[in-house]
Amino acid sequence: MKKPNEKQIVLFFAVPSSVLLLLFLILPILSNIFISTFDIGSNPGQWFHNFASFKNYENAIMQDGFINAVRNSIVYTIVTTLGVTTIGLFAALCLKKPFKGRSLVIALMMLSWTVPSYVVGIFFGYLFQQDNSVVNFILFDVLKFDLYSGWLGFEWSYNELNQLIIPRWLDGKYSVLTVAIPAIWHYWPYSMLLFLEGLNLIKGDTSRAATMDGANEVYKFFYITLPILKPALIAVLAQNLIINIYSFNIVVMMFGNGTMIPSKGADILIPYIFRTSFQSWNLGIGAALSTMLTLTVGLSVLYYYRSLRGQENERA
After folding, report:
1. CATH code of the region 55-130+168-315
2. What whole-number distance in Å separates Cα of residue 206 and Cα of residue 107?
3. Geometric angle at alpha carbon 73, from 155 and 244, rounded to 5°
C-alpha cells in the first residue's frame, strides 16, 4: 500500500478545518456585511428591498446611546483587563514555588472560572441590587463605612433628616465599574493558569545566579520574570481584551435577571447591539454596529499575531 505523501497529509488535516472556518466564521461575517447594507425592519416580507449602502453605518454612529456605549465599553474593557491581568499575575507569582497542597489551592482558585457567566451575573446582581443589597448592608449597617470613609475621599449624600441615602451601585454615573467587578472575579483564574505556565519556563539556576549577583526580588521580577513572561502577558492581554469587548451574559443578567436594559452608566456595546437588532428591530443598523466591532477586534488580533511573530523572529 502506497504511503501518503506530505502534501496529502497536509490536505487531510487542512480541508476539514478550512470548511469549518468557512461555514462558521467567513460566511457569517460576509452575511453580516451584506445585511448591513440594507434597511431591514421587523417585517420579513420587506427584507432586502431597500438598499441603504453605507447609510446604516452613519445612522449607527449617530444613534442616541452609541457614544455612551462605546465609552462604557472602553472603560469596562480596560478596567476588567487590567484587573484580571494584575490579580492573575500576582496569584501566579504566589504559587510558582511548590508547597504542600499547592494543587488543591490552584483547584479552589479555579472555581470562579468554572461558574457559568450568566450565574455570575445573577449572583452579583443580587449582591448589588438597587435597594436592600447585601453590599450596602455590609458596608453601612455592619461596618458603618460612611462614618469613617471621608479620609479616603468618599462623599455620601444625606437627606434632610441627616439619614444616609443608600447608593445605587447599578444606576449611577460610574456603574460600569460595578459591572466590571464580577467580570474580574470570573476571569482572573484563567490568566493565573497562563502565567503559571510561563513561570515554568524560568529556570531555577537563572534565579539563583541573579541572587548570588546581589539582585533583589524587585530587580529579578522586572529584568528576569517579566521578559520571560512577555509572550504569556501579551496572550493574556489580547484574550481578555477580546473577551471583555464581547461581554454580554454578566452585564445583562445583573440588571433584572436578563431584562437586557442596563443603566446608562453600565451600557456596553454587545447588549446595545442586541437591543438595536432584536428589540428595536433595526437589523441593518445592528449589523453595521457588529461589523464595525468585528473589524476593530480583527485589527487587534492581527496586531497581537504580528507582535508574537516579531518575538519569535527575535528569539530565532
Report:
1. 1.10.3720.10
2. 29
3. 110
pLDDT tens track for 281-298: 888 899 999 999 999 888
pTM over 0.90: no
> Which residue matches cell numbers 470613609?
149
Helix/strand/coil for 158? strand
| Rounded distance between C-alpha atoms, residue 46 and residue 281, angstroms | 13
Is the Cα dihedral 180, 181, 184, 186 positive or negative? negative
The residue that leads in pLDDT, 271 or 203, is: 271
Three-state SS for 92? helix
Calpha distance 212→190 (Å, rounded): 34
The amino acid at residue 148 is Y
Angle (deg, nearest 10), helices 66-95 and 226-245 = 140
Per DSSP, helices labelled H in the chain are 6-21, 27-35, 55-62, 66-95, 102-109, 111-114, 117-127, 134-136, 145-148, 175-199, 204-212, 217-220, 226-245, 249-254, 269-278, 283-315
Average pLDDT value for residue range 23-34 = 86
Q: Which long-range contacts (CB under 8 A, 24 or more apart) does 191-194 make?
A: 191/84, 191/85, 191/87, 191/88, 191/89, 191/236, 191/240, 192/87, 192/88, 192/89, 192/91, 192/92, 192/95, 192/106, 192/109, 193/110, 194/88, 194/232, 194/235, 194/236
Query: Which grid coordinates are listed for 270?
Result: 454587545
In angstroms, rounded to a whole number, what is the distance separating the alpha carbons of residues 175 and 53? 37
Judge contact between 135 and 169, C-beta under 8 A: yes
Cell 474580574 maps to which residue? Answer: 184
Interhelix angle 283-315/27-35, rounded to 10 degrees, is 140
Domain boundaries defined on the chain: 55-130+168-315
The pLDDT assigned to 165 comes to 79
pLDDT in the model for residue 49: 75
Cell triple for 246:
464581547
